[in-house]
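Section: Multi-chain targets

For targets with more than one molecule, the full set of components is provided together so that the structure can be written out for the assembly as a whole rather than chain by chain. Components appear in the order listed by the source. The example entry contains four components.
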Amino acid sequence: MATPLDSDDLLSALRKAGARITKPRKLIIQILADKGDEHPDAMEIFRRAVRQDSRISLPTVYRTLKMLEEHGAIQRHAFVDGRSRYEPADGPHHDHLIDMDTGAVIEFQSEKIERLQEEIARELGYEIVHHRLELYGRKTKV
Amino acid sequence: MATPLDSDDLLSALRKAGARITKPRKLIIQILADKGDEHPDAMEIFRRAVRQDSRISLPTVYRTLKMLEEHGAIQRHAFVDGRSRYEPADGPHHDHLIDMDTGAVIEFQSEKIERLQEEIARELGYEIVHHRLELYGRKTKV
DNA sequence: ATGCAAATGCAAACTATTTGCAATAAGGAA
DNA sequence: TTCCTTATTGCAAATAGTTTGCATTTGCAT
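Its structure, encoded as tokens over all components, is:
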């Protein structure tokens, strides 16, 4: 199982792309690599960045995210709420459970489901290259 | 494989919701139920509607889509390109296997996977409202 | 046929994201 | 280190997709 890209991996992705390592970029990468809260959207990344450097701008956040995405260093997810959420790429494969009330994204993985998918594809004469599974739900009353 | 809801099903979904069957709504539903091109977005639905009745407005398209979605009559999909695409909901849920070479979409359904999903959600303290599973694959060599 | 609430069309508002441009700063060369 | 070039930045304004306020129209129960 692969380890998610960390701060240094994201930085070298930029270097490999011939991009300059600027202060805003370092900050954004630091936030993306932070294991705290997963799948932040652009605005959330911006808010956290501002806390460390009030000069940073939202367009720069978007530009950096786009650049990292184009170089495969981070992954962009589109959920039904309209905005995009980001996470470092190449983590272990996982699927998402989206809390419909709060928008929280919970990761999970199930070996069984993965195997069932392979099986279904095989029956249909296919080989799975990649898949995406999203569950949308609400917290059960206690 | 389940049969997608047709024009009449969508209309009765509206009636059951106590909504009026207006001319714009009939038109939009007709377009949604049309088996021709799958997963149109709001603008595409609007363009097609205008061809039949130039008086129709984009907000009405959005309002109708939202209403149908809220009543489970159609399903909204969010892709990375930012806009939402719609399709008539199936009675029993179906998932998609996308042929990466031809773009063909194969529908399938697995009771086992559905049950595993419920189980996983329950363990996480959630109740699934709906889900989306997409497999991307290639035909296995014969 | 008539009345009234629901639905419509228009314009304008909103949200998420992108772009033009002058000012700034990264980082290689001297 | 200092200088120079050019990528990158921040700002403001533009776009794209979607939603909302409001006066007018229309479905449909009576």
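Chain B has five helices and five strands.
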